[in-house]
Each structure stands twice: as structure tokens, then as C-alpha cells.
Amino acid sequence: HRHPFCMALVDLDFFKQINDSFGHAVGDAALRDLAAALRRHTREGDILARFGGEEFVLALPNTDLEGARVLAERIRTYVRGLHWEAEGISFGLTVSIGLSTLDHDGRYQGRPLVDHLLRQADKALYYCKSNGRDQVSAHEDIPERQRAVADLVADGAFGGAGGDQMNLAGITRREQFDNTDADRGPRGAADADNNARGIHGL
User: Fold this and answer.
1) What is the pLDDT of residues 116-136, one digit of tens each?
2) Distance in angstroms (rounded) separating the CA atoms of residues 41 and 167
3) pLDDT tens digits along 125-168
4) DSSP readout, 137-198?
5) d(C-alpha 201, C-alpha 83), whole Å
């Protein structure tokens, strides 16, 4: 049907330092708050799942790349404004977000579609990390000279036994957050200031 579709990988920056400094209970609390923030920023029909230790995947149907950037930047800015306290110390966290978009020409390099989109988003995430973190990048943003390195990283992340059999079996469609976002048209820059999704403090 050639509808737009994007995928985002959201990764907490330097999360290991939080676990090492304050313990896993504090780290788990931060992960729960991040998951809540992601749910509050998604629409009915968007798909959210925890993908790794400190990584989440967002599948965004009816969302073009411009709209995915708007959403990702909104999430990044929101998370940067959150603060936690542990052992009398206040700290914040940042996220890096890699984006990929559906190629309707079908150039998936022989891989299943979901696997291809995840690999492309992971390459963009690596590009964010290598450029200083706390940012949003799409696969299209990666300079040609850096794509070979990104390919190697993606091969390490998704290769090996079962690497080509990745699926979203653990992903469930989120419950409707409110009934103000009935429009399922492509999300674009025009909704950047749309408050229908209701961004609230955690």
C-alpha cells in the first residue's frame, strides 16, 4: 500500500555508569521512567518494546522520516529534562536515537523487512554514539565513508546464530493513551506542536 513506515532504536547513553555507581535498582527505575516517557509520546497503533538491556524499539506506521525525526527529537529533549536522585546525588540521562524508514523500492539486501529496518536503525544509532551521543540520526545521515564501519557494527549486533531470524514476537501494540489522536494519517512536521498526545511529568 506504500504507506510510510519508520523504526526507531532508543538507547540510554552511558547507562552502565548508572548501574555501576548506584546499583541496578536505580537503573531499573530509570528504565521504567524511560518506558513510560516513550509510551506517553506514542500514538495508538505505534508499537513499543524493550529490545535490549537499555534499548527500546519503536515501530511507527503511517509515519514518514520527517515525522519520525520530530517525534524522536521530542523524546530526546523530554528525557534530557528528567532527573533522578540516588544516595543524595541528582543525575540526569540522555538518549541517542537511530531511525530507519521503509524503502518502497524493496531494497532489503535479501533480508526480512523487519531485520533490514532494525539493522538500518542500528547503524544510525551507532552514528549517533560515535558523534557524541544525545542526538537523533537517520540511516540516510551517515556519510558514505562511515557506512562500512556502521555495517560492521550492525553485523556484530545482528549476525551470528539466529541473527537473520530476528522478529518482533515480543512486541505488543500499545494501549490507546487517549482518544484525541484518532487521525492515523502520516505524521509530519505539522504536528510538532500537537498536544493531543498529552506529554505529562512522570
Assistant:
1) 899 999 999 999 999 999 999
2) 24
3) 999 999 999 999 999 999 887 777 767 766 666 543 233 223 33
4) EEGGGS-HHHHHHHHHHHHHHH-STTGGG---TT-EEPPPS-SS----SPB-GGGTT--TT-
5) 11
Distance (Å, whole) CA 58 – CA 69? 12
pLDDT band at 83 (very low <50, low <70, confident <90, very high): very high
Q: Catalytic residue numbers?
A: 54
Which pLDDT score is estimated for 64?
A: 95
Rounded Cα distance between 134 and 169, Å, is 29
CB distance 189 to 66 below 8 Å:
yes
pLDDT for the residue 110: 59
173: left (phi over 0), alpha (psi -120 to 50) or beta: beta
CA distances from 43 to 8, 14, 173, 186 (A): 14, 28, 10, 12
State how far the Cα of 133 lies from the Cα of 174, in Å rounded to an integer. 28
What pTM did the predictor assign?
Answer: 0.73
Quick one: cell of 190?
Answer: 505539522
Q: In DSSP terms, which residues pair with 11 in a beta bridge? A: 55, 96
